[in-house]
Amino acid sequence: MKSLNGLAVAGKNILLRADFNVPMDQRGVILDDSRIRAALPTILYLVKHRVKQIILVSHLGRPKGKVIEDLKLKAVAQRLGALLKIKDNLILEKVGDFDAYKLNSQIYLLENIRFYKEEEGNNLEFAKKIAHLGDIFINDAFSCSHRAHASIEGVTHFLPSYAGLTLKNEVETLSNMIKNPKSPFVCILGGAKVSDKIDVIRNLAQKVDWFLLGGVMANTFLKAKGFDIKSSAVVNEKLDEAKRLYEDFGTKIILPIDYTFGKLDGKDAILDIGQATISMFANYLRRAKTIFWNGNLGMTEIKEFATGSKEIARAIVSTDAMTIAGGGDTVSFLNQYGFTTRFSFVSLGGGATLEFLAGKKLPGLAPLT
Q: Is-same-fold flag (13-165; 173-357)?
């Protein structure tokens, strides 16, 4: 992979794609700045190596090509400036044809790139307009690299393109886990995104010793096997595929044996794994040498249904295994309960991580290899 390391950048204008798609509350207050912090190593590297300017590009939310006040990046620019210890007043300026937040004379952040419909359409004329802002393109947004968008894939047609430090670390860590995992290798898959996670099972089945399933993922497999899951969330269109996958790899796919029920839209539904399942999963984890976790095991936004995920997190960090977690909800959960720093590596990739582990080619990575 072509990376920033050793690249001659002094005096150059750098177009840097980051992922500042951070969770915010209704007041516009950032709830988790992990993705902003993830961009700091590359930004500081560029500053240290005396680049002329850094033009940061990111999106926030899904504005679908329209300007939405609540999805402007002012709060992101303020937080980034604070993290970089920039004391200048934040100014909104024009950089080329784009509105940009001027953090100082060297660093600019373009306004939400998804305010332009051409971004998600990967319009090459629009990508060329973005590319005119830089001499070199650095992709440091692994979490967006499964999208063939103008600021991810399109700009690579017009600029020399390289991986940022954080993206390179993501790819190398996940690649090593896939290629050379220490056995036993345990993969915990919860939450939703059932289609992507089914692809992960299929791709990694020969490497993984046990898949421990929870959340909507487990519900789908349980229903496919004929269990009564009441009104629990499930992906019905994946039932046949889940059934076939269980028939092929059933000895490796470990499903919950008890559950915590609660009310979902007034009906009984599985909202967490039960104590017997927690104990069973913990027994598998104690034997593991490599652990990957993506997707919470219950409805963790409600405290009483966060028990399973908390207990499994404790079991993971108490092992001496290589431990990797990924996914926006999972990372936010680990941050909330103070587990993040106790993992060997935390991926901010979400959907990109799942597609990478499923063996799919990511449009944002292909031009960097």
A: yes
Which residue is catalytic, options 154, 191, 215, 328? 328
pLDDT in tens, 188-244: 999 988 999 999 999 999 999 999 999 999 999 999 999 999 999 999 999 999 999
Active site residue 310: no
Domain 173-357 indexed as CATH 3.40.50.1260: yes
For strand 267-273 and strand 253-254, is the pairing parallel, antiparallel, or unpaired?
unpaired
pTM beyond 0.90: yes
Q: Which one from 35, 129, 147, 168 is the annotated catalytic residue? A: 35
The residue among 26, 112, 52, 114 whose CA lies nearest residue 76 is: 112
61 is catalytic: no
Query: What's the full length of the chain, in residues?
Result: 369
Choose, from 61, 121, 262, 351, the residue flagged as catalytic: 351
Give the active site residue among 114, 193, 223, 252: 193
Asked if 351 is an active-site residue, the reply is yes
79 is catalytic: no
CATH of domain 13-165: 3.40.50.1260
Domain ranges of the chain: 13-165, 173-357
> How far, in Å, CA of 82 to CA of 122, rounded?
32
What 3-state DSSP class applies to 50?
Answer: coil
